[in-house]
Amino acid sequence: MYIESEINIEVRYYETDQMGIVHHSNYIRYFECGRHQFLIDAGLPIMEIEKSGIMMPVISVEASYHSPARMGDILRVVTRVLKEPMAKVEVLTDIYAQDGTLICDGRVVLGFIRSDTRRPTRAPKAFVDAFRKADKDKQGE
C-alpha cells in the first residue's frame, strides 16, 4: 500500500520565533495540515470518521529538522501511508522548501478509539476500504 497527498502551506509571521525562523512546534501543526488533506484525498474526511463514532488520537510523534523555514516561504507538505491501517495507522510526512530542500520529516502514529467508550478498536472497515480503494486508484494511474 502506498498513498500520498500534497498540500502547500505559506509560513505566517506568528509561526516564527525571534530568529525569524519557523518555531519547531509549528512543524507538528504542518504535519496535521498534511494529514487532514491526506484524509480528504483518500475519501476519509475527519468529520465523517468522527460521525461514524471513531476518533483517532495521536499515539506518538517524531520529527527531524534539517533546514530552517522563514516567514513567507511556501512549504510543500507531502504526506503518505505505506501500510494498511489496522489497530493504528502510521503517517509519514516530508516538508520541503520552494527550492526542493528537505526542511523537516516526521512520523505520526494514530490509534483508533470508539467515541462512546474511549476504548481502542481496530480501524473501521469503511476506513480500510477507503484506503484500499485509494491505493488501487493510485496503482491504476
Quick take:
By secondary structure, the chain is α+β, with helices and mostly antiparallel strands.
Please, could you describe this protein's structure?
The structure is a single chain. By secondary structure, this protein is an alpha+beta fold. It has helices at residues 26-41, 46-51, 125-139; strands spanning 3-10, 54-55, 58-65, 74-81, 88-96, 102-111, 113-114. It has a five-stranded antiparallel sheet. The protein starts with a strand and ends with a helix.
What sort of overall outline do the alpha carbons produce when their principal axes are compared?
globular
Strand content: 25-35%
Total strands: the figure is: 7
Q: Could you tell me how far the N terminus lies from the C terminus, measured between alpha carbons in angstroms?
A: 14 Å
* Share of helical residues: 25-40%
